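hey can u run this one w/ magnesium ion bound, need the structure tokens asap thx
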Amino acid sequence: HSPTARAAPEEEPASAALDALRSVATLPAELRLALAREELSLVFQPIFRCEDGAVASMEALLRWNSPVRGPVPPDRFIPVAEESGLIVPIGAWVLRQACAAASAAGGSWRLSVNLSPVQFQQPDLASMVAGILRDTGLSAERLVLELTEQMSLSRYPSARETIRRLRAMGVALALDDFGAGFSNISSLRGFRFDLLKFDRSILALPPAQREPVLSALLAIAGAFGLEAVVEGVERPEDWALLRRLGAGYAQGFLLGRPEPGLGAALVRAPVPAPSDRAPLLS
Ligand code: C2E
Ligand code: MG
Ligand code: MG
Ligand code: MG
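ok here u go:
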């Protein structure tokens, strides 16, 4: 090994780190422009009722197609939007677009929209939601707001009052990504939710743990009087297991992927014939 050959790799990481730092530093500014430049869009993923495979809900998911970076995944830019406060105007835009699309499409399925805990800091969140429902003509009973507990909700004093006002309007509340992050039993006691969404990491457990853990979680949902939605249904055996355990609702790439239109709302998930089901005793 020559000394020059050894010097090069030492400099590369430093400049790569600097590039990464610059790239992160400009994200908030790029995101600020993204909304005005119409680089943001929505896709919709169906949530199916396990009993009969009917579409119960369509979940709006945000997409950012940056002219410089290409598609940026929400797990990358939502935290940036939260730190910069941009999630407030972006979140309002998402809700308005999604409600307008669902209202125009009609149907009896519900619309699920993700809200950041940062939006729950806004004391006027419930009025904002009421205003958008009024403007778009979507009935409150068709709206489900999904809240993920990246941060503890109890940090936000106005969150409890906001949840109470939203539920009084007829809007349903879902606790998203339960089983991952900070979600716990005390958040189920402290805040009134209607639905509990289990993170896809549950279905990703090894077979020996998957069924007992899922059964226990479904029992927790039942104990709190909540409907259960299981995320991450990727394999036919996941779908069969959910139906066998009597889970309420299911979402995942096997059943329906996020797509730009609301066309998937017309599609029914394939319900396995009784003979396809795994035997109760083996
Ligand atoms: P989420 O709300 O839990 O949404 C489900 C995520 O899992 C979506 O990722 C969806 O594409 C993905 N997914 C669905 N089924 C499967 C599956 O079978 N397998 C796998 N591997 N993944 C599946 P996406 O769209 O990348 O969104 C990631 C997260 O970003 C969302 O998780 C949500 O927390 C957040 N997010 C997305 N849109 C918004 C938004 O408008 N506002 C806020 N505040 N957060 C959003
Ligand atoms: Mg969600
Ligand atoms: Mg989720
Ligand atoms: Mg998730």
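The chain has a mean pLDDT of 89. anyway lmk if its weird
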